[in-house]
């Protein structure tokens, strides 16, 4: 089973991310945009896991969730990996990155003890909204990213773009020709104050 651990996003946030995708789509770059239903914040990509590993990972999610209190976050900026000038992955960053990073690092350390390798790159709290497929109109996309990097901050009533990070979720990912299908396998609430 191909799987990952993530934070699900509420509708007001996915609405906002879809708006951001719409603005960037005007560049007519060759981008595979992430479907609304698949927008999420990945805490740990697991790859293929078996049933025994799945059960151990669920226990790790339970333990980790009890060590953190639910907190507010919101989309902050639009950007790209490796950089705006040469976009491959288009993302929206989140504030409260340190809190998200702590959770991700705890999960990473504990899961590594199961023999699942650590990520080579350091964690950056982001929501992938698109993946570049070719160099078509790449300059236009790069310019659109630069011009709209503060898209979320410039929204009217930007304070309404907050959401509460309150659960850690284990997803199964099935690769289909139309794109991946994500199914919730398990979720655990963070502590409430």
Using only C-alpha atoms, the radius of gyration works out to: 17 Å
Based on the coordinates given, report the CATH architecture.
Answer: Alpha-Beta Complex
CATH superfamily: Cyclic phosphodiesterase
Percent of residues in helices comes to 25-40%
Give your account of this protein's structure.
With 193 residues, the chain is α+β, with helices and mostly antiparallel strands. Helices cover 29% and strands 37% of the residues. The strands form three sheets. A four-stranded antiparallel beta sheet has the order 3-1-9-10. It has a four-stranded antiparallel beta sheet with strand order 2-7-6-5, covered by helices on one side. It has a two-stranded antiparallel sheet with strand order 4-8. The longest helix has 16 residues, at 97-112. The protein is globular, with a radius of gyration of 17 Å.
Summary tags:
4-stranded antiparallel beta sheet; Cyclic Phosphodiesterase, Chain: A; 29% helix; alpha+beta; 4 helices; 10 strands; single chain; 193 residues
């Amino acid at each position: 089973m191909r799987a990952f651990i993530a934070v699900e996003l509420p509708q007001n946030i996915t609405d906002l991310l879809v708006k951001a995708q719409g603005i960037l789509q005007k560049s007519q770059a060759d981008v595979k945009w992430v479907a609304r239903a698949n927008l999420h914040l990945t805490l740990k990509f697991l790859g293929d896991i078996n049933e025994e590993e799945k059960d151990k990972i669920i226990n790790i999610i339970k333990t980790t969730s009890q060590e953190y209190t639910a907190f507010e976050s919101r989309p902050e900026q639009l950007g790209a990996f490796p950089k705006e000038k040469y976009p491959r992955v288009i993302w929206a960053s989140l504030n409260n990155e340190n809190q998200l990073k702590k959770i991700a690092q705890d999960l990473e350390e504990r899961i590594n003890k199961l023999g699942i390798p650590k990520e080579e790159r350091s964690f950056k709290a982001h929501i992938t909204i698109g993946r570049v497929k070719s160099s078509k109109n790449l300059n236009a996309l790069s310019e659109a990213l630069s011009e709209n990097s503060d898209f979320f901050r410039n929204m009217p009533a930007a304070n309404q773009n907050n959401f509460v990070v309150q659960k850690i979720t284990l997803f199964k990912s099935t690769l289909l020709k139309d794109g991946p299908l994500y199914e919730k396998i398990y979720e655990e609430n963070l502590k409430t104050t």
